[in-house]
C-alpha cells in the first residue's frame, strides 16, 4: 500500500513538472474588472505583452467591468485551474467586497489564489477646473461650507471600491457632507469631472495625470509615501496628516484555487522579472507614480491575510454597503 501511495505521489509530482515545462501551450487570459483605459487595464496590457514575449503565447485581456470587480473575480474563481485564466485586480474583489456585500457568488478566501502583488498605486484627489479652489486646503474649506443640495459631489470608479473608500474616509475625518456618484470605472467618471458635472473624484494617479497636465482638472493631493516625481508640487495625504484614509491601492495577479504550484511559481517569477527588467520601470511605471513590487505567491498570500481586517474596519467606518 505504501509503495502504491509513493508511486502515486511521484507520478503527480512528475506530471506537475511536465506541465510547467510545456506551459503555456495556448493563449493565456488576463481578466480585468474594469473597462479599457484605466490603470488596471493598462498594467494588464503592458505586463501581458511582456509575458507573451517571455513565454511565447499570446495574452488576451478580457475586460469584465462592474460590481466593484466582482464580475471578473467570479469568472476567474470558477474557471478551470490550469494556468490559462488569471485575474488582474485591485484588492477590492480579494479583501474588500466580502465586507460590502451580504453574499458573493465566489469565495475570495478559498476560490482565488494570490500569485503576485504587482505594483502599488497612489490614488489622486482631483477636482474640476471649475471648482473654486487651487489647493487641498482651499478645497477642504469650501467643502465644509457647502450644505444641503450644494454638498460636494464626489465621483468614484464604483461603490465600495478602492476609489470610494478614500472619499468616505476623508469626509469622515474632515467632517464635511458629500454626495457619492459611482461609475463603472474611472474613464467615465473623469469625463464628467472634466465637464464639471462632478466637483471632485478619487482615481488612480495615472488616470488623472494627463488631464492635470492639460489643465482640464486639478490634482490637489496624492497617496503614497513621498511626492511623485512628475508633479512634485502636489502634497501627499501623508504630509497632510491624512495617511489613514488609504489613498493607495495595489494591483495584483490571482488564479483559480488549485492551479498547479509549478505554474504558480513560474508565473510569479515571470511577472517579477518583467517588473524588475532594466528600463521597464522608467518607461512604464515611474511617470505614473506606480511602485513595482513583484512579490512571490507566499508574500501575496500573507499580504491578503493581513489586509482583510484592515479593509473590514475601513468599510465599517465608511458605512459603505452594496446590498
Overall geometric form: globular
Mean pLDDT: 91
- What percent of the residues sit in helical stretches (DSSP H or I)? 40-55%
Q: Can you tell me the number of structural domains?
A: 2
- Overall CATH class of the largest domain: Alpha Beta
Query: Under the CATH scheme, which architecture of the largest domain would be assigned?
Result: 3-Layer(aba) Sandwich
Count every helix, treating DSSP H or I runs of 4 or more residues as helices.
Answer: 11
Secondary structure layout plus pairing:
Elements (H helix, E strand, L loop, with lengths): L1 H21 L5 E5 L6 H17 L3 E5 L6 H8 L7 E5 L2 H9 L11 E17 L7 H10 L6 E5 L8 H10 L3 E5 L3 H10 L4 E5 H10 L2 E6 L25 E9 L4 H15 L4 H6 L5 E2 L4 H22 L5
Helix pairs in contact: 1-9, 2-9, 4-11, 6-11
Note down, in words, how this protein is organized.
By secondary structure, the chain is an alpha/beta fold. The protein has 2 domains: 27-121 and 249-318, D-Maltodextrin-Binding Protein, domain 2, CATH 3.40.190; 122-245, Periplasmic binding protein-like II (D-Maltodextrin-Binding Protein, domain 2, 3-Layer(aba) Sandwich). The longest helix has 22 residues, at 297-318. Helices cover 43% and strands 20% of the residues. Strands 1, 2, 3, 4, 5, 6, 7, 8, 9 and 10 form a 10-stranded mixed sheet that branches. It has 11 helices and 10 strands.
Amino acid at each position: 500500500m505504501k509503495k502504491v501511495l509513493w508511486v502515486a505521489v511521484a507520478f503527480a509530482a512528475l506530471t506537475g513538472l511536465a506541465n510547467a515545462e510545456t506551459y503555456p501551450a495556448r493563449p493565456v487570459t488576463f481578466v480585468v474588472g474594469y473597462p479599457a483605459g484605466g490603470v488596471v487595464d493598462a498594467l494588464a496590457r503592458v505586463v501581458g505583452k511582456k509575458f507573451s514575449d517571455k513565454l511565447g503565447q499570446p495574452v488576451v485581456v478580457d475586460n469584465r467591468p462592474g460590481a466593484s470587480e466582482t464580475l471578473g473575480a467570479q469568472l476567474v474563481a470558477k474557471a478551470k485551474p490550469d494556468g490559462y485564466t488569471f485575474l488582474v485586480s485591485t484588492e477590492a474583489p480579494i479583501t474588500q467586497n466580502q465586507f460590502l456585500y451580504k453574499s458573493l457568488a465566489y469565495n475570495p478566501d478559498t476560490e482565488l489564489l494570490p500569485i503576485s502583488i504587482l505594483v502599488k498605486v497612489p490614488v489622486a484627489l482631483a477636482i474640476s477646473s471649475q471648482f473654486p479652489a487651487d489647493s487641498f486646503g482651499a478645497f477642504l474649506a469650501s467643502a465644509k461650507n457647502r450644505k444641503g443640495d450644494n454638498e460636494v459631489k464626489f465621483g468614484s470608479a464604483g461603490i465600495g471600491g478602492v476609489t470610494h473608500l478614500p472619499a468616505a474616509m476623508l469626509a469622515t475625518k474632515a467632517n464635511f457632507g458629500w454626495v457619492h456618484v459611482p461609475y463603472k470605472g474611472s474613464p467615465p467618471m473623469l469625463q464628467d469631472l472634466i465637464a464639471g458635472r462632478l466637483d471632485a473624484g478619487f482615481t488612480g494617479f495615472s488616470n488623472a495625470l494627463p488631464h492635470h497636465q492639460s489643465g482640464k482638472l486639478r490634482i490637489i493631493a496624492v497617496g503614497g509615501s513621498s511626492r511623485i516625481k512628475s508633479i512634485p508640487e502636489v502634497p501627499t495625504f501623508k504630509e497632510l496628516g491624512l495617511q489613514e484614509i488609504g489613498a493607495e491601492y495595489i494591483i495584483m495577479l490571482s488564479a483559480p484555487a488549485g492551479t498547479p504550484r509549478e505554474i504558480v511559481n513560474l508565473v510569479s517569477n515571470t511577472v517579477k522579472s518583467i517588473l524588475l527588467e532594466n528600463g521597464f520601470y522608467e518607461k512604464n511605471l515611474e511617470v505614473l507614480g506606480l511602485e513595482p513590487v513583484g512579490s512571490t505567491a507566499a508574500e501575496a498570500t500573507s499580504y491578503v491575510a493581513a489586509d482583510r481586517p484592515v479593509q473590514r474596519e475601513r468599510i465599517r467606518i465608511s458605512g459603505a454597503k452594496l446590498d
